[in-house]
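User: I'm preparing a small set of examples for a lab meeting where we compare how different chains pack in three dimensions. I only have the primary sequence for this one, and I'd like the structure in token form so I can line it up with the others. Please keep the answer compact; I'll paste it straight into my notes.
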Amino acid sequence: MDLLGTILAPFKWLVSAMLAGFHDGFSAVGMPPASGWTWTLAIIGLVLVIRAALIPVFLKQVNVQQRMRRLQPDLKKLQEKYEGKTDPLSRQAMAQEQMALYKAHGTNPFSACLPLLIQMPFFFALFQMLSGISAAAGQGEAVGAMSPEQVAQFDESTIFGAPLSASLLHGGGGSQLSVWILSIAMILAMTASQLITQRQIMARSLSGEAVATPLMGPQKVLLYSLPVVFGVGGIVFPIGVLIYWTTTNLWTMGQQFAVRWDRMGP
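Assistant: Understood. Below is the structure token output for the 266-residue chain.
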């Protein structure tokens, strides 16, 4: 097992255990064990568990974003102080003063990415699981906490004629047209929801004037590059992974809409 596989091993076991648990629960209430909709609901259940566990992180992020908004007048003064100064020493001094302001206010512009970073091991664990599930099913092997029978059921499961383990680039059985249509639709949904959530985070953290300042350049590049990365990478993501990430984006959108930032204290 390579280093990445070793690191992801416990996450793969947790992900597979939660998927198996939700699958068994939905099967127990009468849903077909091999149905793609049963496994889709299991994936959604996985998202709900992970995102619910991240609620304390989200609430901390809310406080940081509030501090970022209160910091905007100071950042604007800093920009005006160094306006027109493009020499390396001035840019370095401005960056140092900017970081000092962040430290003094107990905030960090990159904190908006924290929930995303925490989720990444689970995301890659699910990606590895679903990418290799057809091979495991063919050999009658278990995958983590999923029994060989569950692995075979997942491998056979489809929604709208497309296997959950199939991807746009690699196919994966079933109707290839269905795989293409569903994959493209899910990639577009994932990318659009990712972009909306990043715009929400930026808007909640910064005023309109602050977003336009050069000081926010690196943060804007980071936040807005993520939808592009996921959109391009989506061609290799199994449909089950696309469902996972679209669902987690929808959760984030719901959180952003639900929270009343101006009513919450620091």
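A couple of notes for your slides: The two ends are 45 Å apart (CA to CA). Strands lie at 158-159, 162-163.

User: Perfect, thanks.
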